[in-house]
Amino acid sequence: MPRFFMAGTNIMGGMAIMTGRDAEHVRVLRLRPGEDMIICDGKGTDYKCRLVKADREQVEAEVIEVVPCPAEPTVQVTVLCGLPKGDRTDYIIQKCVEAGASEIMFFQSDRCVAKPDKPEKKLERWQRIAEEAAKQSGRGIIPQVSWAGEYADALNVANQKELGLFMYETGEREALNTVLEANSDVKTAAIVTGPEGGFAPFEADLARIVGLHICSMGERILRCETAPVVAVSALMYATGNLS
Amino acid sequence: MPRFFMAGTNIMGGMAIMTGRDAEHVRVLRLRPGEDMIICDGKGTDYKCRLVKADREQVEAEVIEVVPCPAEPTVQVTVLCGLPKGDRTDYIIQKCVEAGASEIMFFQSDRCVAKPDKPEKKLERWQRIAEEAAKQSGRGIIPQVSWAGEYADALNVANQKELGLFMYETGEREALNTVLEANSDVKTAAIVTGPEGGFAPFEADLARIVGLHICSMGERILRCETAPVVAVSALMYATGNLS
Q1: What pTM value is reported for the model?
Q2: What CATH number matches the domain at B76-238, 1.10.1200.10, 3.40.50.20, 3.40.50.620, 3.40.1280.10?
Q3: Is the dihedral angle over the CA atoms B97, B101, B107, B113 positive or is it negative?
Q4: Ranges of each domain in chain A
Q5: Which residues lie closer than 8 Å to A118 by C-beta, 6 or more apart?
Q6: For residue B41, how many C-alpha atoms fall within 13 Å in the half-sphere facing its CB?
Q7: pLDDT tens for residues A48-73?
Q8: Is the pLDDT of residue B142 over 90?
Q9: Inter-chain contact A136–B95, Cβ cutoff 8 Å?
Q10: Residue A241 and residue B218: Cβ atoms within 8 Å?
Q11: Which pLDDT does position B243 carry in this prediction?
Q12: Position B7 pLDDT exceeds 70
Protein backbone atom coordinates (compact mmCIF):
# COMPACT_ATOMS: atom_id res chain seq x y z
CA MET A 1 0.00 0.00 0.00
CA PRO A 2 1.41 3.45 -0.86
CA ARG A 3 2.85 5.23 2.13
CA PHE A 4 3.45 8.94 2.74
CA PHE A 5 5.01 11.04 5.44
CA MET A 6 2.60 13.86 6.14
CA ALA A 7 4.82 16.95 6.02
CA GLY A 8 2.04 19.01 4.43
CA THR A 9 -1.00 17.12 5.63
CA ASN A 10 -3.76 18.17 8.01
CA ILE A 11 -5.83 15.53 9.70
CA MET A 12 -9.11 16.92 11.01
CA GLY A 13 -12.54 15.45 11.60
CA GLY A 14 -11.65 12.09 10.13
CA MET A 15 -10.30 13.58 6.89
CA ALA A 16 -6.69 13.98 5.72
CA ILE A 17 -5.99 16.96 3.49
CA MET A 18 -2.71 16.88 1.58
CA THR A 19 -1.24 19.76 -0.37
CA GLY A 20 2.13 20.60 -1.94
CA ARG A 21 4.71 17.84 -2.47
CA ASP A 22 2.67 15.12 -0.80
CA ALA A 23 -0.40 15.83 -2.95
CA GLU A 24 1.86 15.71 -5.98
CA HIS A 25 3.10 12.28 -4.97
CA VAL A 26 -0.45 10.96 -4.84
CA ARG A 27 -1.07 12.30 -8.33
CA VAL A 28 2.18 10.86 -9.67
CA LEU A 29 1.21 7.43 -8.36
CA ARG A 30 -2.17 7.88 -10.18
CA LEU A 31 -4.13 6.75 -7.14
CA ARG A 32 -7.89 6.77 -7.80
CA PRO A 33 -10.75 7.59 -5.43
CA GLY A 34 -11.57 4.50 -3.40
CA GLU A 35 -7.94 3.34 -3.24
CA ASP A 36 -6.20 2.99 0.13
CA MET A 37 -2.95 4.51 1.34
CA ILE A 38 -1.08 5.03 4.60
CA ILE A 39 -0.29 8.52 5.80
CA CYS A 40 2.34 8.55 8.52
CA ASP A 41 2.59 11.53 10.86
CA GLY A 42 6.36 11.13 11.31
CA LYS A 43 5.81 10.62 15.04
CA GLY A 44 5.17 6.90 14.91
CA THR A 45 1.45 6.89 14.00
CA ASP A 46 0.03 5.51 10.75
CA TYR A 47 -3.30 6.75 9.36
CA LYS A 48 -4.84 4.25 6.97
CA CYS A 49 -6.86 6.40 4.54
CA ARG A 50 -9.14 5.94 1.54
CA LEU A 51 -8.75 8.45 -1.26
CA VAL A 52 -11.82 10.63 -1.81
CA LYS A 53 -10.60 13.29 -4.20
CA ALA A 54 -7.29 14.24 -5.87
CA ASP A 55 -7.18 17.37 -7.95
CA ARG A 56 -4.57 19.92 -8.93
CA GLU A 57 -4.68 21.76 -5.62
CA GLN A 58 -5.22 19.11 -2.99
CA VAL A 59 -5.85 15.54 -2.04
CA GLU A 60 -8.63 14.51 0.32
CA ALA A 61 -8.76 11.13 1.99
CA GLU A 62 -11.01 9.59 4.63
CA VAL A 63 -9.23 8.22 7.70
CA ILE A 64 -10.24 4.57 8.16
CA GLU A 65 -7.87 3.38 10.86
CA VAL A 66 -5.26 4.87 13.18
CA VAL A 67 -2.48 2.53 14.34
CA PRO A 68 1.06 2.76 15.74
CA CYS A 69 3.51 2.34 12.85
CA PRO A 70 4.48 -1.36 13.01
CA ALA A 71 8.00 -0.63 11.76
CA GLU A 72 8.93 1.39 14.84
CA PRO A 73 11.01 -0.58 17.35
CA THR A 74 10.07 -0.75 21.03
CA VAL A 75 13.40 0.83 21.94
CA GLN A 76 14.58 4.30 20.96
CA VAL A 77 18.23 4.01 20.00
CA THR A 78 20.53 7.01 19.82
CA VAL A 79 23.68 6.30 17.82
CA LEU A 80 26.66 8.51 18.74
CA CYS A 81 29.69 8.32 16.43
CA GLY A 82 33.07 9.99 16.44
CA LEU A 83 33.04 12.04 13.23
CA PRO A 84 34.55 9.90 10.45
CA LYS A 85 36.09 11.04 7.18
CA GLY A 86 34.28 11.66 3.93
CA ASP A 87 31.03 9.94 3.08
CA ARG A 88 31.24 7.42 5.91
CA THR A 89 28.79 9.66 7.75
CA ASP A 90 26.26 9.10 4.97
CA TYR A 91 26.65 5.39 5.16
CA ILE A 92 26.26 5.37 8.96
CA ILE A 93 23.10 7.46 8.73
CA GLN A 94 21.46 5.43 5.98
CA LYS A 95 22.19 2.01 7.44
CA CYS A 96 21.41 2.91 11.07
CA VAL A 97 18.05 4.38 10.05
CA GLU A 98 17.20 1.21 8.12
CA ALA A 99 18.32 -0.95 11.04
CA GLY A 100 16.02 0.98 13.41
CA ALA A 101 17.93 3.80 15.11
CA SER A 102 15.85 6.78 16.25
CA GLU A 103 18.56 9.40 16.37
CA ILE A 104 22.09 9.79 15.03
CA MET A 105 24.65 12.20 16.44
CA PHE A 106 28.26 12.86 15.52
CA PHE A 107 30.88 14.21 17.87
CA GLN A 108 34.48 15.33 17.93
CA SER A 109 36.93 13.12 19.78
CA ASP A 110 40.65 12.90 20.30
CA ARG A 111 41.49 10.72 17.30
CA CYS A 112 39.06 12.24 14.80
CA VAL A 113 40.89 12.78 11.51
CA ALA A 114 37.99 14.75 10.09
CA LYS A 115 37.87 18.15 11.77
CA PRO A 116 35.38 20.27 9.87
CA ASP A 117 35.11 23.83 11.05
CA LYS A 118 31.38 23.88 10.68
CA PRO A 119 29.78 20.42 10.79
CA GLU A 120 26.50 22.27 11.18
CA LYS A 121 26.72 22.99 7.46
CA LYS A 122 26.41 19.32 6.67
CA LEU A 123 23.33 18.82 8.80
CA GLU A 124 20.89 19.56 6.00
CA ARG A 125 22.38 16.91 3.74
CA TRP A 126 22.64 14.41 6.60
CA GLN A 127 19.01 15.00 7.52
CA ARG A 128 17.94 14.43 3.92
CA ILE A 129 19.75 11.07 3.90
CA ALA A 130 17.91 10.11 7.10
CA GLU A 131 14.58 11.15 5.58
CA GLU A 132 15.13 9.13 2.42
CA ALA A 133 16.19 6.07 4.38
CA ALA A 134 13.18 6.44 6.71
CA LYS A 135 10.77 6.59 3.78
CA GLN A 136 12.38 3.76 1.89
CA SER A 137 12.41 1.42 4.89
CA GLY A 138 8.86 2.27 6.01
CA ARG A 139 9.81 3.93 9.29
CA GLY A 140 7.17 5.76 11.34
CA ILE A 141 9.52 8.61 12.26
CA ILE A 142 12.23 10.53 10.50
CA PRO A 143 15.26 10.03 12.74
CA GLN A 144 17.02 13.26 13.61
CA VAL A 145 20.68 13.71 12.70
CA SER A 146 22.59 16.23 14.76
CA TRP A 147 25.97 17.42 15.89
CA ALA A 148 26.69 16.52 19.52
CA GLY A 149 29.78 18.73 19.80
CA GLU A 150 32.69 17.66 21.97
CA TYR A 151 33.27 14.21 23.37
CA ALA A 152 32.06 15.20 26.83
CA ASP A 153 28.76 16.39 25.34
CA ALA A 154 28.32 13.05 23.61
CA LEU A 155 28.94 11.16 26.85
CA ASN A 156 26.40 13.36 28.51
CA VAL A 157 23.75 12.46 25.92
CA ALA A 158 24.54 8.75 26.21
CA ASN A 159 24.38 8.91 29.96
CA GLN A 160 20.81 10.19 29.90
CA LYS A 161 19.55 6.98 28.30
CA GLU A 162 18.39 3.95 30.27
CA LEU A 163 21.18 1.89 28.71
CA GLY A 164 24.48 3.34 27.50
CA LEU A 165 26.79 1.12 25.44
CA PHE A 166 30.36 2.16 24.67
CA MET A 167 31.98 0.00 22.00
CA TYR A 168 35.68 -0.47 22.67
CA GLU A 169 38.17 -2.87 21.15
CA THR A 170 40.58 -3.47 23.99
CA GLY A 171 41.01 -3.80 27.75
CA GLU A 172 38.47 -4.79 30.35
CA ARG A 173 35.03 -5.01 28.81
CA GLU A 174 31.65 -6.61 29.29
CA ALA A 175 30.35 -9.06 26.71
CA LEU A 176 27.63 -7.42 24.63
CA ASN A 177 25.38 -10.49 25.10
CA THR A 178 25.52 -10.24 28.88
CA VAL A 179 24.68 -6.55 28.90
CA LEU A 180 21.85 -6.85 26.39
CA GLU A 181 20.30 -9.95 27.96
CA ALA A 182 20.10 -8.11 31.27
CA ASN A 183 18.50 -5.10 29.58
CA SER A 184 16.19 -6.56 26.94
CA ASP A 185 13.24 -4.41 28.03
CA VAL A 186 14.86 -0.96 27.87
CA LYS A 187 12.96 1.83 26.15
CA THR A 188 15.91 4.12 25.47
CA ALA A 189 19.51 3.23 24.65
CA ALA A 190 22.67 4.87 23.36
CA ILE A 191 25.41 3.27 21.29
CA VAL A 192 28.74 5.12 21.29
CA THR A 193 31.38 4.25 18.65
CA GLY A 194 34.69 5.84 17.74
CA PRO A 195 36.18 7.45 14.64
CA GLU A 196 38.73 5.72 12.34
CA GLY A 197 41.45 5.67 14.98
CA GLY A 198 39.17 4.48 17.77
CA PHE A 199 39.04 6.00 21.23
CA ALA A 200 42.01 7.16 23.27
CA PRO A 201 42.40 5.26 26.56
CA PHE A 202 41.46 8.37 28.59
CA GLU A 203 38.22 8.59 26.62
CA ALA A 204 37.35 4.99 27.50
CA ASP A 205 38.19 5.75 31.13
CA LEU A 206 35.82 8.73 31.08
CA ALA A 207 33.05 6.60 29.61
CA ARG A 208 33.57 4.06 32.36
CA ILE A 209 33.50 6.74 35.02
CA VAL A 210 30.19 8.21 33.85
CA GLY A 211 28.72 4.71 34.00
CA LEU A 212 28.46 3.52 30.42
CA HIS A 213 28.86 -0.19 29.73
CA ILE A 214 32.23 -0.73 28.04
CA CYS A 215 31.39 -3.46 25.55
CA SER A 216 33.21 -5.87 23.32
CA MET A 217 31.72 -6.92 19.98
CA GLY A 218 34.09 -9.85 19.53
CA GLU A 219 37.62 -10.15 18.26
CA ARG A 220 36.98 -8.87 14.75
CA ILE A 221 37.97 -5.25 14.26
CA LEU A 222 35.03 -3.38 12.72
CA ARG A 223 35.52 -0.26 10.62
CA CYS A 224 34.17 2.92 12.14
CA GLU A 225 31.24 2.93 9.70
CA THR A 226 30.46 -0.77 10.27
CA ALA A 227 30.45 -0.90 14.07
CA PRO A 228 27.29 1.26 14.56
CA VAL A 229 25.23 -0.85 12.14
CA VAL A 230 26.35 -4.14 13.68
CA ALA A 231 25.64 -2.77 17.17
CA VAL A 232 22.17 -1.47 16.25
CA SER A 233 21.38 -4.85 14.63
CA ALA A 234 22.44 -6.73 17.76
CA LEU A 235 20.43 -4.40 19.98
CA MET A 236 17.34 -4.74 17.79
CA TYR A 237 17.74 -8.52 17.81
CA ALA A 238 18.21 -8.67 21.58
CA THR A 239 15.13 -6.51 22.25
CA GLY A 240 12.87 -8.55 19.95
CA ASN A 241 12.76 -5.91 17.21
CA LEU A 242 14.20 -8.00 14.40
CA SER A 243 11.39 -10.52 14.02
CA MET B 1 50.94 -6.77 17.37
CA PRO B 2 51.54 -6.77 13.59
CA ARG B 3 49.60 -9.44 11.78
CA PHE B 4 50.23 -11.10 8.41
CA PHE B 5 48.47 -13.60 6.23
CA MET B 6 51.02 -16.11 5.16
CA ALA B 7 50.54 -16.31 1.39
CA GLY B 8 54.26 -16.80 0.79
CA THR B 9 55.33 -18.23 4.14
CA ASN B 10 56.68 -21.66 4.97
CA ILE B 11 56.48 -22.89 8.51
CA MET B 12 58.88 -25.75 9.17
CA GLY B 13 60.70 -27.00 12.23
CA GLY B 14 59.50 -24.15 14.43
CA MET B 15 60.63 -21.44 12.01
CA ALA B 16 58.53 -19.25 9.69
CA ILE B 17 60.23 -18.19 6.47
CA MET B 18 58.59 -15.30 4.60
CA THR B 19 59.53 -14.15 1.12
CA GLY B 20 58.04 -11.84 -1.51
CA ARG B 21 55.22 -9.43 -0.58
CA ASP B 22 54.97 -10.64 3.02
CA ALA B 23 58.68 -10.19 3.65
CA GLU B 24 58.39 -6.72 2.17
CA HIS B 25 55.61 -5.88 4.64
CA VAL B 26 57.84 -6.81 7.55
CA ARG B 27 60.58 -4.56 6.21
CA VAL B 28 58.15 -1.69 5.59
CA LEU B 29 56.98 -1.90 9.20
CA ARG B 30 60.67 -1.77 10.26
CA LEU B 31 60.26 -4.68 12.66
CA ARG B 32 63.51 -5.51 14.44
CA PRO B 33 64.88 -8.89 15.54
CA GLY B 34 63.31 -9.81 18.87
CA GLU B 35 59.98 -8.16 18.05
CA ASP B 36 56.81 -10.27 17.95
CA MET B 37 54.24 -10.64 15.20
CA ILE B 38 51.38 -12.92 14.28
CA ILE B 39 51.48 -14.93 11.09
CA CYS B 40 48.07 -16.32 10.13
CA ASP B 41 47.84 -19.30 7.79
CA GLY B 42 44.51 -18.14 6.31
CA LYS B 43 42.89 -21.36 7.53
CA GLY B 44 42.04 -20.13 11.02
CA THR B 45 45.38 -20.72 12.78
CA ASP B 46 47.61 -17.97 14.20
CA TYR B 47 51.36 -18.46 14.65
CA LYS B 48 52.81 -16.08 17.19
CA CYS B 49 56.39 -15.52 16.03
CA ARG B 50 59.51 -13.65 17.15
CA LEU B 51 61.56 -12.04 14.40
CA VAL B 52 65.05 -13.51 14.03
CA LYS B 53 66.30 -11.98 10.80
CA ALA B 54 64.92 -9.69 8.10
CA ASP B 55 67.07 -9.00 5.09
CA ARG B 56 66.49 -8.13 1.47
CA GLU B 57 65.61 -11.69 0.41
CA GLN B 58 63.70 -13.17 3.29
CA VAL B 59 62.37 -12.89 6.81
CA GLU B 60 62.94 -15.58 9.42
CA ALA B 61 60.95 -15.80 12.62
CA GLU B 62 60.79 -18.30 15.44
CA VAL B 63 57.35 -19.78 16.15
CA ILE B 64 56.53 -19.20 19.81
CA GLU B 65 52.90 -20.21 20.02
CA VAL B 66 50.27 -21.77 17.76
CA VAL B 67 46.63 -20.89 18.53
CA PRO B 68 43.27 -20.86 16.74
CA CYS B 69 42.66 -17.32 15.46
CA PRO B 70 40.42 -15.74 18.14
CA ALA B 71 38.59 -13.63 15.54
CA GLU B 72 37.09 -16.64 13.79
CA PRO B 73 33.48 -17.28 14.81
CA THR B 74 32.30 -20.71 15.95
CA VAL B 75 29.83 -20.83 13.07
CA GLN B 76 30.72 -20.80 9.37
CA VAL B 77 28.24 -18.53 7.64
CA THR B 78 27.67 -18.61 3.89
CA VAL B 79 25.94 -15.46 2.62
CA LEU B 80 24.01 -15.95 -0.62
CA CYS B 81 22.73 -12.78 -2.32
CA GLY B 82 20.72 -12.15 -5.45
CA LEU B 83 23.13 -10.17 -7.65
CA PRO B 84 22.53 -6.44 -6.99
CA LYS B 85 23.40 -3.51 -9.20
CA GLY B 86 26.70 -1.60 -9.29
CA ASP B 87 28.98 -1.49 -6.30
CA ARG B 88 26.46 -2.90 -3.85
CA THR B 89 28.28 -6.20 -4.27
CA ASP B 90 31.45 -4.58 -2.91
CA TYR B 91 29.63 -3.24 0.08
CA ILE B 92 28.05 -6.61 0.84
CA ILE B 93 31.42 -8.37 0.60
CA GLN B 94 33.30 -5.88 2.77
CA LYS B 95 30.72 -5.62 5.53
CA CYS B 96 29.83 -9.32 5.69
CA VAL B 97 33.52 -10.25 5.96
CA GLU B 98 33.96 -7.77 8.82
CA ALA B 99 30.82 -9.06 10.52
CA GLY B 100 32.14 -12.62 10.38
CA ALA B 101 30.83 -14.39 7.25
CA SER B 102 33.04 -17.22 5.94
CA GLU B 103 31.83 -17.29 2.34
CA ILE B 104 29.90 -14.97 0.04
CA MET B 105 28.11 -16.09 -3.09
CA PHE B 106 26.01 -14.19 -5.61
CA PHE B 107 23.29 -15.72 -7.75
CA GLN B 108 20.89 -14.82 -10.52
CA SER B 109 17.21 -14.69 -9.58
CA ASP B 110 13.95 -13.66 -11.19
CA ARG B 111 14.01 -10.01 -10.19
CA CYS B 112 17.72 -9.32 -10.62
CA VAL B 113 18.13 -6.04 -12.49
CA ALA B 114 21.86 -6.63 -12.91
CA LYS B 115 22.38 -9.36 -15.49
CA PRO B 116 26.07 -9.44 -16.33
CA ASP B 117 27.02 -11.87 -19.07
CA LYS B 118 30.14 -12.95 -17.26
CA PRO B 119 30.01 -12.36 -13.49
CA GLU B 120 33.11 -14.58 -13.38
CA LYS B 121 35.06 -11.60 -14.66
CA LYS B 122 34.31 -9.71 -11.45
CA LEU B 123 35.46 -12.48 -9.18
CA GLU B 124 39.04 -11.28 -9.00
CA ARG B 125 37.99 -7.83 -7.83
CA TRP B 126 35.45 -9.26 -5.38
CA GLN B 127 38.04 -11.62 -3.94
CA ARG B 128 40.46 -8.73 -3.43
CA ILE B 129 37.80 -6.81 -1.47
CA ALA B 130 37.27 -9.87 0.74
CA GLU B 131 41.00 -10.21 1.30
CA GLU B 132 41.41 -6.56 2.28
CA ALA B 133 38.44 -6.72 4.66
CA ALA B 134 39.77 -9.96 6.19
CA LYS B 135 43.18 -8.43 6.83
CA GLN B 136 41.79 -5.19 8.18
CA SER B 137 39.39 -6.88 10.59
CA GLY B 138 41.90 -9.48 11.80
CA ARG B 139 40.13 -12.53 10.40
CA GLY B 140 41.86 -15.91 10.47
CA ILE B 141 40.65 -16.86 6.99
CA ILE B 142 40.14 -15.03 3.71
CA PRO B 143 36.47 -15.66 2.95
CA GLN B 144 35.87 -16.93 -0.57
CA VAL B 145 33.65 -14.94 -2.92
CA SER B 146 32.07 -16.90 -5.73
CA TRP B 147 29.31 -17.03 -8.29
CA ALA B 148 26.61 -19.53 -7.37
CA GLY B 149 24.88 -19.42 -10.75
CA GLU B 150 21.11 -19.82 -11.00
CA TYR B 151 18.67 -19.51 -8.14
CA ALA B 152 18.25 -23.30 -7.88
CA ASP B 153 22.00 -23.68 -7.45
CA ALA B 154 21.98 -21.15 -4.60
CA LEU B 155 19.14 -22.99 -2.85
CA ASN B 156 21.12 -26.17 -3.22
CA VAL B 157 24.15 -24.62 -1.49
CA ALA B 158 21.99 -23.22 1.34
CA ASN B 159 20.31 -26.53 1.82
CA GLN B 160 23.59 -28.29 2.52
CA LYS B 161 24.17 -26.21 5.65
CA GLU B 162 22.93 -27.18 9.10
CA LEU B 163 20.77 -24.07 9.22
CA GLY B 164 19.34 -22.35 6.14
CA LEU B 165 17.75 -18.91 6.57
CA PHE B 166 15.76 -17.30 3.78
CA MET B 167 15.02 -13.63 4.42
CA TYR B 168 11.63 -12.65 3.05
CA GLU B 169 9.56 -9.54 3.61
CA THR B 170 6.01 -10.83 3.30
CA GLY B 171 3.67 -13.76 3.92
CA GLU B 172 3.96 -16.56 6.44
CA ARG B 173 7.35 -16.44 8.14
CA GLU B 174 9.14 -17.53 11.28
CA ALA B 175 10.53 -14.92 13.64
CA LEU B 176 14.31 -14.77 13.30
CA ASN B 177 14.65 -14.90 17.13
CA THR B 178 12.74 -18.16 17.38
CA VAL B 179 14.77 -19.83 14.66
CA LEU B 180 18.13 -18.64 15.99
CA GLU B 181 17.39 -19.43 19.63
CA ALA B 182 16.56 -23.01 18.65
CA ASN B 183 19.80 -23.25 16.65
CA SER B 184 22.37 -21.34 18.67
CA ASP B 185 24.93 -24.17 18.49
CA VAL B 186 25.04 -24.70 14.71
CA LYS B 187 28.44 -24.95 13.05
CA THR B 188 27.34 -24.10 9.49
CA ALA B 189 24.61 -21.74 8.33
CA ALA B 190 23.42 -20.05 5.15
CA ILE B 191 21.72 -16.67 4.83
CA VAL B 192 19.82 -16.11 1.57
CA THR B 193 18.77 -12.56 0.62
CA GLY B 194 17.23 -11.12 -2.53
CA PRO B 195 18.25 -8.52 -5.12
CA GLU B 196 16.78 -4.97 -5.27
CA GLY B 197 13.30 -6.19 -6.21
CA GLY B 198 13.24 -8.97 -3.64
CA PHE B 199 12.17 -12.53 -4.36
CA ALA B 200 9.26 -13.59 -6.56
CA PRO B 201 6.59 -15.56 -4.65
CA PHE B 202 7.47 -18.77 -6.54
CA GLU B 203 11.07 -18.39 -5.37
CA ALA B 204 9.96 -18.15 -1.73
CA ASP B 205 7.76 -21.21 -2.29
CA LEU B 206 10.74 -23.14 -3.64
CA ALA B 207 12.86 -22.13 -0.64
CA ARG B 208 10.10 -23.34 1.67
CA ILE B 209 9.81 -26.64 -0.21
CA VAL B 210 13.54 -27.41 0.03
CA GLY B 211 13.28 -26.79 3.78
CA LEU B 212 14.86 -23.41 4.41
CA HIS B 213 13.51 -21.30 7.28
CA ILE B 214 11.52 -18.42 5.78
CA CYS B 215 12.40 -15.60 8.18
CA SER B 216 11.19 -12.13 8.99
CA MET B 217 13.63 -9.44 10.14
CA GLY B 218 10.93 -7.11 11.37
CA GLU B 219 8.70 -4.59 9.64
CA ARG B 220 11.46 -2.30 8.38
CA ILE B 221 12.27 -2.85 4.75
CA LEU B 222 16.02 -3.32 4.41
CA ARG B 223 17.89 -2.50 1.21
CA CYS B 224 19.37 -5.47 -0.60
CA GLU B 225 22.88 -4.49 0.51
CA THR B 226 21.82 -3.90 4.15
CA ALA B 227 19.87 -7.11 4.80
CA PRO B 228 22.87 -9.50 4.62
CA VAL B 229 24.92 -7.43 7.10
CA VAL B 230 22.04 -7.13 9.58
CA ALA B 231 21.35 -10.86 9.27
CA VAL B 232 25.00 -11.85 9.78
CA SER B 233 25.17 -9.52 12.83
CA ALA B 234 22.05 -11.11 14.34
CA LEU B 235 23.36 -14.61 13.69
CA MET B 236 26.76 -13.77 15.23
CA TYR B 237 25.03 -12.25 18.23
CA ALA B 238 22.71 -15.24 18.70
CA THR B 239 25.57 -17.74 18.49
CA GLY B 240 27.72 -15.89 21.02
CA ASN B 241 30.19 -14.58 18.45
CA LEU B 242 29.68 -10.88 19.10
CA SER B 243 31.12 -10.69 22.60
Answers
A1: 0.93
A2: 3.40.1280.10
A3: negative
A4: 3-68, 76-238
A5: none
A6: 14
A7: 999 999 888 889 999 999 999 999 99
A8: yes
A9: no
A10: yes
A11: 87
A12: no
